[in-house]
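step: validate -> pass
step: tokenize input -> pass
step: predict -> running
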Amino acid sequence: MEIIISGKNKKRLRLVEQLAKELGLSITKSKMDSKSEETEVSDEERSEKLYQLMEEMAASGGIESIQDPIAWQSEVREDKKLYGRE
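step: predict -> pass
step: emit ->
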């Protein structure tokens, strides 16, 4: 898998880079030319890409660490005890 991260806030990008290193991820840096412009992607194109990614995930069998999705969902949604309202 490859993730490309870009931005103008160098301080925050350095934090992301530091976290990636701590996680043991490989990092490849490149600089964008000042002449190159980021292409704008329409909401429709984003939606289509997201749909394709979800279809690929569903076709791959989903998340392997979740054996029983219904039990997992019940466990995640379990009500938490509220402080002072026990």
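step: describe -> The chain has three helices and no strands.
step: cleanup -> pass
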